[in-house]
Predict the structure.
Amino acid sequence: MGAWIQLRYRRFFALLTVAADLAAIVAVGWWVASKVSRRARASWLELRQHVADHALPLAFLVALICTLGSLYYSEVAHFIPCKLCWYQRIAMYPLTVILGIAAMRRDLQIRRYVIPIVALGSVISTYHYVIERFPNLAGGSCDPSAPCTVTWVWEFRFISIPFMALGGFALIATLLLTASPSISEEGEEFIDDDEDASETTFDAPAVAATAARA
């Protein structure tokens, strides 16, 4: 029964990884299409406006699932985390707290601090995945008692634990970058029609002419 439950959890996390990867790929493809098609650009800007309201809670949820998943593998399934696993945890675990607070405060500016952490974690995950597939590239940097080249999980013939971490980092980055302020075709920040009138451009010549007539 224990092995069966463990298999179900591995399959569940693998399916979440596939969903995260597909979401990131679709977002990148949509962004590329927006550069060559006016219709795609209009829908891309609309998507960014919608995502902005939900990006932080969703990013927090992704970080939380990644954190709980890694704890499951080490504390319940008793997979021994290697040095690179710990580096990825160091990048992922704080994001749960940071993104949770940012979600409560609705502070999208937090992406300035989160994206570099996500980028670093993605690089480590990618390297870890590569040396899993090609152990000769690891050299002597791994701890013999917990080698980085051991593949504890291998689902759908391409998903391992570092690949799962990479999917989490990629989806967090996609959510935060997609939720950035919309940009108009002239390269200026999009401003809603109902925004405060104080945001409009100050027309100095018109003001001077009005003053002269007075």
Remarks:
- Helices lie at 2-34, 38-52, 55-76, 83-105, 111-133, 161-178, 204-213.
- Residues 182-202 have pLDDT under 50 and may be disordered.
- The chain has seven helices and no strands.
